[in-house]
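=== Discrete structure encoding ===
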Amino acid sequence: MNGVSYPIFHYDVMVNEFEASVISAVVEHMNGDHPEDNLLIARAFGRPEATASVMVGLDGAGGRWLVTDASGESELTVAWPGGPISERAEIRREVVVLYKSACEKLGVTPREEHAPEQTTAAPHGGGHTHGAGHPHGAGHPHGGGHAHAATTPDDDGSFAQAIREATWGDHSGSEGSTYMEDIMRGRSGIEEYTALVAQHYFVYEALEAASEKLAADPDFAAFHPAALVRLPALVEDLEFLIGADWRDKIQAVPATRAYADRITELGEEPWLPGLVAQHYTRYLGDLSGGQMIAKLVAKQHGFDRAGIAFYDFTELGPIPAFKQTYREALNQMGERLSDEERARVIAEVRAAYRFNTETFIDMDRARAATV
């Protein structure tokens, strides 16, 4: 890969490194909620012919995107317009300014929530932008074509939005765990990645068994099409990573066992909204930030499909379209719930994030015990 930097400004200062959890949260948000913005930024700041762009990282100096154009894939670095930053709250501000700068460079009208008053700029050269909605996490990079402009504000009052707003801080706390940070930065070996796949297996074994119990419920159908099922892909990955006897060689850490037990409990109750809360947190996260993990792991270990089949959602069709359908189903479910039930669902989403964080902590402990 030929990495090329395209800074707006240059700063000869020490660069602040954010925690991996913060980076992951921002990257997931940009790739899942604003894939078209990524493409605009790439086209405006060094890749005018870009057909796809996915955010892959950031630090105090700027953001990084993996961009695809006629020459292939390469990394693009763009400095923050306001200079180096050190606080998480500053990231959103700089990303918004970067987006608006890209719109100005390309002659595109910013989305309504970011547009200057009385903006009348016309789309540039037949290309225009549209804003993505707000599912959890990040999605697949927008591939090909021009980005399309939006007129819908970020806060639309929907149940999906209420969940995202209420749980924003929950999926960014690492509690001192560096497990995912090490994987994302290529500091882990194949053993650590394999252990992660194993924990996924135990969680999805419980989640898909619980989902099967509710498969006949029409209110659950939109959330769980057959192409979303992950267990066969996880088996494929574990057979590749460990061998035919993989089942005898993996074990769940305590937090993963508690995680799976909670999901099983929701299926046995059964409490459909609660299961949807767990379902939403897992699947949409893997449709989102999981795509970045797959790219990084594939590059580090030379994987094609085997080893990262879990993250391959090709049979699902266009990921943005599915996520929009999922959000609509989530909003429809929210309309049927009382305020108390909606609060319970949000609490269950938060519980899912805690299980996830505690799993990484346990995996760190298990890793330390083997050193």
In short: The beta strands are 4-5, 52-58, 62-69, 72-79. Residues 1-13, 117-154 have pLDDT under 50 and may be disordered. Residues 160-370 form a domain with the Heme Oxygenase; Chain A fold (CATH 1.20.910.10).
